[in-house]
Write a structure and sequence with these properties.
The protein is α+β, with helices and mostly antiparallel strands and 71 residues long. Strands 2-1-3 form a three-stranded antiparallel sheet, sandwiched between helices.
Length: 71
């Protein structure tokens, strides 16, 4: 009896979702890096918390970009 293996086609959406789930995101402000090594959901959560505290210039970027700004 032959088995059929269904190929999994990776879509752009799958790749974006995987990338957002990786701990590669940072939150920066005008004062510097506020948090790094976060998945995107936690970075967005941190951004909202800091925004509620009145911190200015907030942005979610990759850890690599945050390191360039700090260096």
């Amino acid at each position: 009896m032959a088995e059929t293996v269904q190929d999994h086609v990776v879509t752009e959406r799958d790749l974006r979702t995987d990338e957002l789930a990786q701990p590669r995101w940072a939150v920066i402000s005008f004062d510097g890096c506020e948090g790094s090594n976060l998945d995107y959901d936690n970075a967005a959560r941190l951004l909202r918390e800091l925004e509620a505290k009145g911190i200015s210039g907030l942005c979610v970027v990759t850890d690599e970009a945050a390191a360039r700004l700090a260096g």
